[in-house]
Amino acid sequence: MRIFYLFFLLAVVTLMQPLPAQVDAAAEGITNALRARESRIVSGLFDWKETRLVVAGSRLALKGGTFPSADTSFELSSKLVLMDPNLFRHEREGLSWDPVFGEFIDRLYVDSYNGTNAKVFFGARQGDSPPLGFEQSKAQDFENGYLQPLLHYLRPTWLLDQADRVQLVESNAMLNGVRCDVIRVANSKPNAVVEFWLDSSREYLPIRTLSKYGRGDQSQVDYEYVQENGFWVPSGWTLVFMERGKLVEQIEASVTTGKINDGVTRDSFEFEFPTNTVVTDRSKEGEPEVRIAREGGDRLVSKSEQRASIPYERLVATDGPAETVIPASRPFSLYLVLFSLFGLLIAFSFYLKNRGLKR
């Protein structure tokens, strides 16, 4: 739905070559302070619980129409691990929106980038599909709007480095009893503006971020903090998504683990696909390679097997190309088509900035 345009913003387009922003003189000291605070954060590790309220009719179903038919509330758990320069891992367990099947499903999701390639994993959709995996060149969740509370806190320069202009719009503004300086970070491609309400007494921590998009959509984050080992770290946040002035989703997050510069190594970003995962490898040039993940060596799925609709159950039971076509109610080629469609939706929505809503 229209929400697929929401997340232009976290555009870690920021992982591309940064362009110089026009920083107003009044905002230069603040941006320098943000960079200095970020430079102290070599790594971050956060676990949190979320309660999500999704408003009726705020999602597009696969064949048109909207979903859900009534306001829907559910809980899930998430984890984010990040380390300089751009090593990244995001995990989520619980319900998530599946744009292919047009409904919420309960499964594990992982997106991990080790500095060389990214692996994206979708746990099995019970009764309908096998576990699925992508291997590609970059982590997609750098652009996930659900993660903006922590990305704005941990890596504000990802936005600053891609901005067209950064300006101070208000000094000493009061918000929730905190005196804040407010800066506006504008990016014309995509057409997005983020306002940071920053606590100057605590190294310009974001107290609120307000993100506005070209179609009149917006999102807002309000933070709470605790002090841990010399750092102020988020203890929770409220994240609200609005579409043309109407609430479409509200998220209440409670952090269970928040660590800065503690407990993260490069091994934290290594991920192996579970056995029997159907992996589409897009990390190399040419056509994607499809294989079945296995310990000791993956099983390649040949082009002829893909064309012949060999069922998934047959593929995982054999060590090489199957010789015969066995009819199946859920042929393997259907999984590939749906998974490819799913991947295209994700890529399109993330690059044209869908916030990932709603896998």
What's this entry about, in short?
The protein is of the alpha+beta class and 359 residues long. The protein has helices at 25-40, 148-154, 157-160, 303-307, 312-317, 332-351, and strands at 22-23, 43-54, 59-60, 66-67, 72-83, 87-98, 103-113, 118-122, 132-136, 165-175, 178-187, 192-199, 205-213, 218-228, 231-243, 246-260, 278-281, 289-292, 299-300.
Query: Would you list the SSEs in sequence order as H and E?
Result: EHEEEEEEEEHHEEEEEEEEEEHHH
Largest sheet: 17 strands, mixed
Helicity, as a percent range: 10-25%
Number of strands: 19
> Whole-number radius of gyration?
21 Å
Structure description:
The structure is a single chain. The strands form two sheets. The protein has a 17-stranded mixed β-sheet. A two-stranded antiparallel sheet has the order 3-4. The chain has helices at residues 25-40, 148-154, 157-160, 303-307, 312-317, 332-351, and strands at residues 22-23, 43-54, 59-60, 66-67, 72-83, 87-98, 103-113, 118-122, 132-136, 165-175, 178-187, 192-199, 205-213, 218-228, 231-243, 246-260, 278-281, 289-292, 299-300. The chain is α+β, with helices and mostly antiparallel strands and 359 residues long. The chain is 16% helix and 42% strand. The protein contains six helices and 19 strands. Strand 6 (87-98) and strand 7 (103-113) form a beta hairpin.
